[in-house]
Amino acid sequence: MAESTDTAVKEKDEISSEAVSVDTDGFGASAMTEEVVLSVKDLQTQFTTRWGTVKAVDGISYHVKRGETLGIVGESGSGKSVNALSLMRLVPSPPGDIVGGEVNLNGRDLQQLSEGEMTEVRGGEISMILQDPMQALNPVFNIENQVGEAIKIHQKLKGTALLDKVVDSLRKVRIPAPETRANDYPHQLSGGMRQRVVGAIGISSAPAVIIADEPTTSLDVTIQAAYLRLLRQIQQEEGVGIIFITHDFGIVAKMCDRVAVMYAGRIVELSDVRTIFNEPLHEYTKALIGSVPKLEEKTGRLPQIEGQPPLLYNLPAGDAFAPRSTLEFSPEDAERRPPLIEVEPDHWVQLSKSSCADFDKYAHLMPAE
Amino acid sequence: MTTAEKVAIPSAPGVSDNADAIISIRNLRKWYQVGGGFLGFGNKIFLKAVDDVSFDIERNKTFGLVGESGCGKTTTLKLLLGLEEPTDGQIFYEGEDVSQMSKASRTEFRRSVQAVFQDPWSSLNPRMRVRSVVGEPLEIATTMTKGQIATRVADLLTEVGLNAYQANLYPHEFSGGQRQRIGIARALALNPKVIALDEPVSALDVSIRAQIMNLLVDLQEEHGLAYLLVAHNLATVRYMCHDMAVMYLGVVQESGETEAIFNNPMHIYTNALVSAALPSHPDIQREEFLLPGEVVSPIDPPPGDVFMTRTPLEVDPNHKWANERPPLVEKEPGHWVVETPWSMASDAGLKVELSGHAGA
Predict the structure, then answer these.
(1) Computed over its alpha carbons, how large is the radius of gyration of chain A?
(2) Which of B276, B284, B265, B279 is nearest to B348 (CA)?
(3) Subunit contact B235:A293, Cβ cutoff 8 A
(4) Measured between CB atoms, which of B176, B211, B350 is closest to A304?
(5) Which residue in A257, A251, A265 sits closest to A221, CA to CA?
(6) Gap from B117 CA to chain A (nearest CA, Å)
(7) Number of residue pairs across A and B with CB atoms under 8 Å?
(8) In chain B, % of residues over pLDDT 90
(9) In this predicted model, what pLDDT tens digit does every residue of B52-64 receive, in sequence order?
């Protein structure tokens, strides 16, 4: 296939010097290993507001393995972003506070670290990629400066050693001619390149875990596809664990090995991606997946979930989803918070009669009162 | 009310002659001058946001415009709403050329085409109560009394799934999905015939999107509305649109019936968009290909086919379509595409298979 003629050289993304990159295997094999790198136990984060205490994250537990992509799915108010901030201890305080739980990264509980120690970990062992990679770069600093900033802090490099590391990071994200690119400013790079630079910043300190919080929300479809591909590449090469926070089930289907579905600050279902799509047990998971129109076929009437997510300062005591569940309401769910139970190997669900059609099948697993 | 002389709507490539169209767009252009031409000297440089676009919006149906940033879909929507003036081309409403209409007809036209915008936060004035937000069009455009307006507002709110008493509240007291309903109620106030929907659900939570899409579909049926839907999510377009056009750099590359296009996407660009779309199930392994380069800016494009600079196939610089804009060609009934030696996916071996998944 010949090179395309082009009249706007500046804009051409030099990466694909081959005409079209075609990927036929979906997305490549999963890079997941068995080694747990991050383990969260019973995390609780609250905000004190004038309407009451908002339990943004109300006791969630999950883990991430090396090379794994864990998707955290939820809507506004589900607590998914506060969860990310809590891992990084970036919760604004006041009004927020992490009031309980452990965050074990590489064997250390991050909640127990001093602020100084945590600063080293942040951007180092655990880094975060934010929404809108286009805006994440500072327009008045060149690339070397921005990618180097994190390296300087975490690896204490200077001079040529620092530059070498910067160039190395840029090369890892497939930016061609990284030595020259390092001198450029963000506006001189195409959108795709800027994405990659943000990725380079994220991996510059060889983190064990990357938290990506809805990084593709505002991107065009083709740019999003390229970005997800890049994240996957990085994961395969670096063995990094990724926590992907999203509300988009398409991303979950494409990127994630395992999925945690959050609702009202709690995890309602947690399993591997195929189980979540093929055998969801919680009504919320089922309804959420069902309410997304499919590109692959003409969808009939779209099933919808009635009502809205609850106000977090006014959470029902028991099962928070029960009011919206299409199943009949069971009175015991009014008071008792349903526990998260492993009903099948690696398939956890918040077991409540009002929100699980298969409750009776697993009722025997409920802990004694 | 005098009417302008009804002229026959010119036919154009990409549009069937027998459509029952309420809106006909013909050869629409919007060029912005961005440089050059100082004091009448030198060549002017234009940003050609919309460059010869033609389509029909049929009564009671939804027409979708898809494409990436800079393709001209939002500008087209603004041209329809009169938020921008066309540089060239015509918009026909009920068979009448809008630019030739009498003042009264034009007023009628503007009332009949309303809009719902993408951002439910910025599209509602935060200092106005809902009853003012929804009632404002009625105050401006009708002679209804306050009491009549209040009743109508209550009816509209109920129709979009809200409560009449909520008319007293301010927008910030509602969730995103509810605010979008308020925007829809406002759009319905003057009994329009056409509603332009600019990414109406992309800013909403997933579970709310289905609610709003279903609401729009129900309202369409009940009121016989026609919709122009601008969206980047192809699944949304497939769900809601009967017909659609894929735009690139201000020019339609492929258009026709939605199902025809998704069952057999012909243009390389359409295939690229479809292949980049996210799957609806983890087992769907769609072949994904990324075109070389990025979307070029619509500033000062070359005279020929706009896709020339992005195609992976060889472009013969002496070919007619490298120097002249190629037209849309009806390759199968109801399915039009810009056909050049370098635009067809089948020639490049880049056809994407969209298949459903049997699981779950």
Answers:
(1) 22
(2) B265
(3) yes
(4) B211
(5) A251
(6) 16
(7) 211
(8) 63
(9) 999 999 999 999 9
Q: Is B247 left (phi over 0), alpha (psi -120 to 50) or beta?
A: beta
Q: How far apart are CA A41 and CA A104, in angstroms?
A: 8
Distance of CA A185 to the CA centre of its chain: 28
- Helix A159-172 to helix A143-155 angle, to the nearest 10 degrees? 110
User: Within a 13 Å sphere around the CA of B143, how many CA atoms are in the beta-carbon half?
Assistant: 0
Residues of chain A found within 8 Å of residue B273, distances taken between Cβ atoms: 221-222
**Bigger pLDDT: A313 vs B339:** B339
Residue A222 token pair:
């083709």
- The DSSP symbol for A265 reads T
Does the beta-carbon distance from B354 to A301 stay under 8 Å? no
Instruction: Write the DSSP symbol of residue B40.
Output: G
- At B154 the pLDDT is 95
Helix, strand, coil content of chain B in percent (nearest 5): 35, 25, 40
Closest CA to A4 of B315, B272, B269, B316: B315
- pLDDT of A369 reads 58
**Are A7 and B293 an interchain contact pair (Cβ–Cβ within 8 Å)?**
no
- Using CA coordinates, name the residue in chain B closest to A220: B68
What are the beta bridge partners of residue B198? Answer: B230
Spell B119-151 as b/e; 16+ CB within 10 A means b: ebeebbeeeebbbebbbbbbeeeeeeeeeebbe
| Low-confidence residues in chain A, pLDDT < 70 | 1-29, 132-134, 218, 368-369
Enumerate the residues of chain A whose CB falls inside 8 A of the CB of residue B359. 274, 277-278
Q: Which of A20, A293, A298 sits opposite B259 (nearest CB)?
A: A298
Q: CA-based diameter of chain A, in Å? A: 72
Residue given tokens 């250390």 in the structure block: A108
Mean pLDDT confidence for B134-149: 93
What digits encode the pLDDT tens for the residues B229-263?
Answer: 999 889 999 999 999 999 999 999 999 999 999 99
**B114 bridge partner residues:** B195
Mean pLDDT of B337-341: 93
Q: What is the ipTM of this complex?
A: 0.82
Neighbours of B300 (CB within 10 A): 16
Scanning B255-314 for CB atoms below 8 A from A yields: 259, 262, 272-297, 301-302, 308-314
Burial A170-196 (b: 16+ CB within 10 A, else e): bebbbbeebeebbeeebeebbbbbbbb
Say what the pLDDT of residue B171 is: 92
Question: Residue B262 belongs to what H/E stretch?
Answer: helix B258-263
Cβ neighbours of A225 in B, within 8 Å: 275-276, 288, 290
